[in-house]
Structure prediction request, 150 residues.
Amino acid sequence: MLEILHFEIRLPIKTKQMNISSKPNFLSKNHHLLISFLALVPTGIIYGTKSLVTEVFDIQVNTIDLSNILRAIMFLYLAVCLVLFLGMWKSKYWIRATQLNVIFMLSLAIGRVLSIILDGAPTQALVVAMVVEFILGLLSIYQLRRIQRN
Prediction:
């Protein structure tokens, strides 16, 4: 008797799966901008509001010049926030917003390090701010490199 051999060949069927890293969702792409935005808005408002800067940082704003400097700093922070916001919502601004975040956060952190060297240790809140600024600056560098690889 003739036996019929039965061979079964299973070919893998390739299905196209969505790679999350190729199209990152909003938070995975923008978390560095969002955290910076959420930190900088209240900080800028505190710097520009005489009663808040006095209460939060125990800084006495006794001259018009100091008030002018603090309000200029407030609007610098808010302008940076505007760019970060645009970068989160419009992809064509994402790279520039992230680059600005790198420069801004690392500049703040390095300025605080210089102040610690020259002036001594500040309050614990400002040391924490320095650490967070370093983290956000480095995280922004990481995000730029991650997006450029994909």
